[in-house]
Specification:
- By secondary structure, the chain is an alpha+beta fold.
- It has four helices and ten strands.
- A hairpin with a 5-residue loop joins strand 7 and strand 8.
Length: about 160
């Protein structure tokens, strides 16, 4: 074990049982400001399922502010749809045909989320959605707190 840690330069992963997020695993990365991130799949009430989650934090665990944000996001999640839907349509418009969908909550599935902080310690969140209407693409919605900051589409 020591030899492989020395050889790869990676610290061993640490698992914790977080009261808000459940089982989380810490992954150390020297290039991140906080030194690493946690991964897990907590139950997210609005979608009635476990959702993959990345939280950028130090090895001590996610902060209370990050846990509080997750709880607020659960209660406000559906109220974000009226703002997210037109921004996704605008981002997906290719100049020729409009990207049309009927109901955001039915046509898009939450695939994962990432919670992190910026230099001013403001909490940011990226929600990643997939849809059968455009299966080759992922739609990344970036929130600054609960305010929509940007929509990015990736293949």
């Amino acid at each position: 074990m020591k030899w492989s840690i020395f050889r790869t330069g990676k610290k061993p992963s640490i698992s914790i049982q977080h009261p808000s997020f459940g089982l989380m695993t810490y992954h150390h990365r020297r290039w991140l400001i906080f030194g690493g991130y946690f991964t897990g799949a907590p139950y997210f009430k609005p979608v009635s399922a476990k959702v993959p989650l990345h939280i950028v934090a130090n090895a001590e665990g996610p902060t209370q502010a990050q846990a509080d944000y997750f709880e607020v996001l659960e209660t406000q999640y559906v109220s974000l749809f009226p703002e997210i839907a037109p921004r996704i349509k605008a981002a997906a418009y290719n100049g020729e045909e409009e990207f049309i969908f009927e109901d955001f909550s039915k046509d898009f599935r939450l695939q994962g989320m990432q919670i992190y902080t910026d230099k001013s310690n403001a909490i940011l969140c990226e929600l990643t959605f997939a849809t059968d209407l455009a299966p080759a693409y992922l739609f990344h919605v970036v929130l600054d707190g609960l305010q929509l900051k940007e929509v990015v589409i990736s293949e």
